[in-house]
Amino acid sequence: MQYRETKVNGEKFNLGQTVITRGALAHCEDNSIDYLEFLMRHSVGDFGDVGKLTSVRLNENELNFGALVTANDLKLNALAIKTGTGMIMSVYEIPRCGTIWIQTILAESETYTTILLPSEY
């Protein structure tokens, strides 16, 4: 794995320590995929197939009880950003090249982001 601390202009949350798995790196290289483009989209709230942060609306129940009352990935992303804890998930389906996932784990002690293939989860 390659490690890097990443900051992006306009980011909605800190990416923290960023890694890409060997499988995802090889897949991106083999298919001429610029994974940094997807990393930037992830950090500014464009979560690909999961949706865009600008389109999510949380109701009072979701704000109070979070993951206990919703399984919607976009809402879970928004809750993680709002509370500063949890997982933020992006799914990018790339025509004729497959799917890339990006996950950010927000925690009080450490934040880290992983670029991976679904088969590596």
Overview of this protein structure:
The structure is a single chain. The chain is of the alpha+beta class. The protein is 29% helix and 26% strand. The protein contains four helices and five strands. Strands 1-2-5-4-3 form a five-stranded mixed β-sheet. A hairpin with a 3-residue loop joins strand 3 and strand 4. The two termini are 15 Å apart.
Give the helices and strands, then pairings.
Blueprint: E1 2-5, E2 17-20, H1 22-30, H2 35-43, H3 60-65, H4 73-83, E3 86-94, E4 98-106, E5 112-116
Parallel strand pairs: 2-5
Antiparallel strand pairs: 1-2, 3-4, 4-5
Q: C-alpha Rg, in Å? A: 14 Å
Overall pLDDT metric:
91
Approximate helicity band: 25-40%
Give the terminus-to-terminus CA distance: 15 Å
User: What is the approximate shape?
Assistant: globular
Strand arrangement, major sheet: 1-2-5-4-3
Give the SSE order as H and E letters: EEHHHHEEE
Structural class, from helix and strand content? alpha+beta
Please work out how many helical segments DSSP would assign.
4
Ranges with pLDDT <50 over ≥5 residues? none
Question: Major β-sheet, in short?
Answer: 5 strands, mixed
Oligomer: single chain
Count every beta strand, where a strand is a DSSP E run of 2 or more residues. Answer: 5
% residues in beta strands:
25-35%
Summarize the structure.
This protein has 121 residues and is an alpha+beta fold. Helix content is 29%, strand content 26%. It has a five-stranded mixed beta sheet.
